Amino acid sequence: MSEGIENKVVLITGGSTGLGAETAQLLAARGAMVAVAARRKDKLDEVVAGIEALGGTAKAYALDVTNKTQVEAVVAGVVADFGRLDVLVNNAGLMPIRPMSEVNTEEWDQMIDVNLRGVLYGIAAALPRFLAQESGHIINLSSVAGIKVFAPGGTVYSGTKFAVSAISEGLRQEVGDKVRVTSIEPGAVDSDLKLGTSGAATDSVLDFYKQAIPASSVARAIAFAIEQPANVDINAIVLRPTSQQY
User: Which of 214, 240, 238 is nearest to 22 (CA)?
Assistant: First the structure.
């Protein structure tokens, strides 16, 4: 893998808004060729148009990360369109906050499908290609909730993010000689993620997110991990607002 960001092909899931869109814009500005994927194609097209207007290179792909056939097809499409894939950013995620006593199994299923299976499906699609080319970088979006359980309310969300952190570290141990693996663990970030909560917890979540840092802060952390020399693997980055104590 070449050093730096310029000319690398980067696929970002959940790339239509917030953190994913900010990351796409920053990496494209630094010379990467960016593929953004998400369910809302109209929003993706807006991101691509904005990047192209500034002279960058980007392409949009409609994707539901819970569908492993679609994930494989998008990764294959990126390789066909750009000639290769260098970096996968598994960014798509959900964060409905609700006490477990409310037993909302539909939300549990959605979080497991998007936050966990979506990451695994991305890895499954990209990893064989990375191993074959003996280079690549998988960046998984975990959370500070993946290093500390946020309860009551965030228990299942924390469970999915602990899993992402564990998978990232295990994958690093398995393939780190050829493929770099980074777990990004943000605290409160201003994005659509906070809007996934309904019911009694809504006000408390929105109040908590008043301290949020901009999504561009996380984008810079992702860029930092990518731009390192090929023999340097940034394994985990934890970042949070200075006012966030946990």
Answer: 214
Q: What is the Cβ-side half-sphere exposure of residue 44, based on CA atoms within 13 angstroms?
A: 19
Q: pTM for this one?
A: 0.95
Model pLDDT for residues 158-183, shown as the tens digit of each residue: 999 999 999 999 999 999 999 999 99
Instruction: Print the domain residue range for 73.
Output: 9-230
Structural domain includes residue 66: yes
Contacts of 88 (CB under 8 A, 6+ apart): 10, 11, 13, 75, 122, 123, 126, 136, 137, 138, 139
Q: Looking at the 3D structure of the chain, how many domains does it have? A: 1
For residues 57-69, one letter each, b for 16 or more C-beta atoms within 10 angstroms of the residue's C-beta and e for the rest, the string is: bbbbbebbbbebe
pLDDT tens track for 75-114: 999 999 999 999 999 999 999 989 999 999 999 999 999 9
Dist CA 167 CA 12 (whole Å): 18
Cβ-based neighbour number of residue 55 at 10 Å: 8
Cα–Cα distance for residue pair 79/11, rounded to 1 Å: 10
Please state, in angstroms and rounded to a whole number, the distance separating the CA atoms of residues 76 and 129.
10
Residue 214: give its domain's CATH number: 3.40.50.720
Asked if 246 is an active-site residue, the reply is no
Q: Which residue among the candidates 61, 121, 157, 209 is catalytic per the annotation?
A: 157
